[in-house]
What does this fold into?
Amino acid sequence: MHQLIKHELCLPIILLILLVFMRNSRSGPTTLFPPLATPAKTGGSTVSAWRRLLGAQSRNSKRIVFGVLIGVMPGLLYAEQNVNQQIEQTIERYLKQQLAQEATAQGWEGARVTYTSTTTSNVIASCSQLPQVTGDSNSIMGRQQLTLSCTDTPAWTVKVNVEANVFVPAVFSQTVIERGDTITAAQLKVEELNISKAPRGFFNNIDKVAGQAAKRRLRANQLISPSLLAKPLLVRRGQQVKMIANQDGIAATTLGEALENGEQGAVIRVKNLRSEKIVEAQVIEAGVVLTTFR
It folds into this structure.
């Protein structure tokens, strides 16, 4: 748990009580009872009686002071601990609500949040219920200032600076993936990611990455972002492809050679191996292109 309230109020009280105790234990008897001159040639019984009385009072004053310390300190510490717990619970509840909203909007799966907090305000009185809270930001990402308020008597308000970190499962490369390769599930893994370290985005699920192509060479353990992926190449330059030609309901097929790489839907140049004529054709599936009679 995060310590939001410093033990700054209890310490001065402790020191003040101890100071009074130490002062009374030294100067109390001589202040309350003036020094007594010892009569000449006496047995000292009067003086001894006074000293015994003063000693008894000094011992009683010590017992009273320590009794106060024992009685007061647990209450102060409990009150401070209790209000700390209330403030932490309020912050955690508020951040979890923010996280749920953000996760729904962004499509995050399995997200969790951690936070650090600091405050310059001191509160010692616990609230009869969890404090009310408002924030200065609608986003959970980054720093924000929360205002916590208790409407009890006495009422109090405390401002807390909070910095949240959101973690989600994200897809990383398991091995090196060469440029242009179609990525398989076996080349991927899922690890937890701090979103603040992924400004270019990420994927939650391996299924959303597998089957796509790498735009450039990917090193092992690299975070997979959308900018690193392209549609998979269904036809590669130099590859032999099946050419389908349609005209007026008549279809014909022949073999051709792709002169360019092509993803689904791309229009590429293809050489007809029978006529050696170069035509444009659209990639419709792996190794298959569609052209028209000319």
The first strand starts at residue 112 and ends at 119. The chain is about 30% helix and 30% strand. Residues 1-12, 25-42, 64-80 have pLDDT under 50 and may be disordered.
